[in-house]
Amino acid sequence: DYRLNDQSKVNPLLPQLKESEILATISKLQSYTNRYYRHNVGARASNELADSWRALAPGRTDVTVSQFNHPNFVQKSVILEIRGTVAPEEIIVIGGHLDSITPQAVLRPGGRAPGADDDASGIATLQEVMRVLLQSGYKPERTIQFIGYAGEEAGLLGSKDIAKAYAAQGRNVMGALQLDMTDYKGSSSDITLITDYTNAPQDDFVAALAAGYLPELKVVRDVCGYACSDHASWTANGYAASFPFEAAFGEDNPRIHTTKDTLSQIGNSAAHALKFARLALAYAVELGSDHG
Ligand SMILES: N[C@H](Cc1ccc(I)cc1)C(=O)NO
Ligand SMILES: [Zn+2]
Ligand SMILES: [Zn+2]
Fold first, then answer.
1. What strand order describes the sheet that includes 191-194?
2. 119 alpha carbon – ligand 3 mean position (Å)
3. d(Cα 206, Cα 279) in Å, to the nearest integer?
4. CA dihedral for 187, 179, 243, 69, sign (positive or negative)
C-alpha cells in the first residue's frame, strides 16, 4: 500500500547516498566510445556493468546478477536482484537504460556517444541506491530488482522484451520506477513527475515520498506526449510505472543524443542526480518493506 510507514528504515539510509559515487559511475560510463545497442563496445559496457554490480555484494546468497539476452541485438540488459525475505514473488523494479546514441555512433562502431545524462546519470543513480541497500545490510520483504535496460534509444527495445516476458510469466511486479536523465537541472523545480504513460496512484505515492522525505525539493508534473522512456513498457504490460524526470518539458538537457552529452557540460556535478537517488531509495524501501 502507498502509506509512508518505514521512516525508521528509510531515514538512516538516506545520508549514506553519496554524490561522489554517482559522479564516478557517470564518469566511467561516459568514457566508453559509445554504448550503442548494436556495437560490441555497447555489449562490453553491459558486461562490465554486470561485473561491477556483482562486486557490490560478495557472498550474499539472496543477491543475484544476471543479464537478459535480447534475440535481435548484441547488447544485454543487466538485472541485480535482492530476493525478498517474506514475499519474494512480489517484485519492485528500479530501472534506467545503459545504452547511448548519437548519429555518429549509429553510423559506425567508433562513433562517439558519451550519454552522460542520457542515461549514465540514471544508471549511476540506481547503482548508488543498490550500493547503500547492499552495504547497509538492508533486507527487503519483497524482491527488489535494479535493471539496466539495453536498447532504449532504438524504441524501448530492452524493456519491451523484459516487461513482455514478465507479463507472460505472470510475474507480480508491484511497481516500476524509471530513471532516465537525472543530472541536468534545467528548471527551477527539482523533480518533474511525467504523468502520461504512467500510473496515477503510484505517481501520487512518489509525490508523497518526496513531500515526506525530501520536503526541500520542488516537485511538479508534466507530460511527455509519447512513450518517451522505459516506464511505458511496464505500463503497456499492465504494471504500475512512474517516471521522475530532471526538468519540465522543453527545459531538459539540450545536448542529449550528441557528442556533447558529457559531465563537463553539466558542471561535473551529480548534485541533481543525488535528489533522484534519495527519492528512489525511499521508493525502494517503502515498497520493498511491505508485503501482501
Ligand atoms: N526523449 C527521451 C528523453 C526525454 C524524456 C522526457 C522528456 I519531457 C524529454 C526527453 C530520451 O531520449 N530517452 O532516452
Ligand atoms: Zn535518449
Ligand atoms: Zn534516455
1. 63-68, 77-82, 142-149, 87-97, 172-178, 241-245, 191-194, 219-222
2. 5
3. 8
4. positive
- For residue 82, give the C-alpha cell: 535482492
CA distance 192 to 244: 6
Which tens digit of pLDDT belongs to each residue from 224-283? 999 999 999 999 999 999 999 999 999 999 999 999 999 999 999 999 999 999 999 999
Residues 4-17, mean pLDDT to the nearest whole number = 97
Residue of 180, 190, 203, 230 marked catalytic: 180
Tell me which ligand sits closest to the C-alpha of residue 194: 1
Q: Chain-centre distance of CA 55, in angstroms? A: 19
- CB of 153 within 6 A of ligand 1: the answer is yes
* pLDDT tens profile 120-139: 999 999 999 999 999 999 99
Ligand 1 site-directed mutation target among 118, 184, 195, 229, most atoms within 8 Å of CB: 229
**Interface confidence (ipTM) of the complex:** 0.98
Look-up: residue for cell 557490490?
A: 56
Is residue 224 lining ligand 1, measured as CB closer than 6 Å? yes
Give start and end residues of each alpha helix (H) in the chain: 7-13, 19-30, 40-54, 103-107, 121-135, 157-168, 200-213, 231-236, 271-288
Q: Which three cell numbers stand for residue 89?
A: 514473488
CA dist list (Å): 270 to 34, 65, 110, 261: 21, 26, 27, 14
